[in-house]
Write a structure and sequence with these properties.
five-stranded antiparallel β-sheet, Jelly Rolls, mainly beta, 44% strand
């Protein structure tokens, strides 16, 4: 059931989760999966932004979610954005992910889902990535990780 709250408009019902992957000792190459954020409560993913610094080439990322299904194990689902070219942070700003159509069940996240980015692109690398995820709760009453 969606939130119906007379005190908060729709923008105030959203939470931004930031994730930063900076590596001083090496670079993030092609085919690396970066774990970005744990989803604290049932929600929808409204937007994602990704940027990088120390680029070599034109790296791209795909957004996915890892979910534990009891009795089955972990499963990985791609979330609409399969190849976002990441701009250099500070020169081009951040790249916006194009997500699946609104109402798509893949955008509905469960508590404990792990949001991930997987790098791609031939002969590309970056020293670090930053990602921001905009989540909107799907319930009025929520607890973070059961607390």
């Amino acid at each position: 059931m969606p939130i119906v709250n007379r005190d908060l408009d729709s923008s105030s019902q959203r939470v931004v989760i930031n994730s930063s992957h900076g590596f001083a000792a090496g670079v993030v190459g092609t085919g690396v999966t970066l774990t970005c954020a744990l989803v604290p409560w049932p929600s929808t993913l409204d937007a994602v932004r990704v940027g990088a610094f120390g680029l070599s080439g034109a790296p791209a990322v795909a957004l996915s979610v890892n979910r534990l299904i009891v009795g089955t194990g972990f499963t990985t689902m791609t979330l609409g954005m399969t190849s976002l070219t990441v701009p250099a942070f500070g020169t081009s700003g951040m790249g916006s992910g194009v997500l699946a159509a609104s109402g798509n069940s893949l955008l509905v996240l469960q508590a404990g889902d792990l949001l991930c980015l997987t790098t791609s692109g031939a002969a590309t690398a970056a020293i670090g990535y930053v990602a921001s995820f905009v989540l909107k709760a799907t319930q009025d009453i929520k607890s973070s990780f059961g607390i």
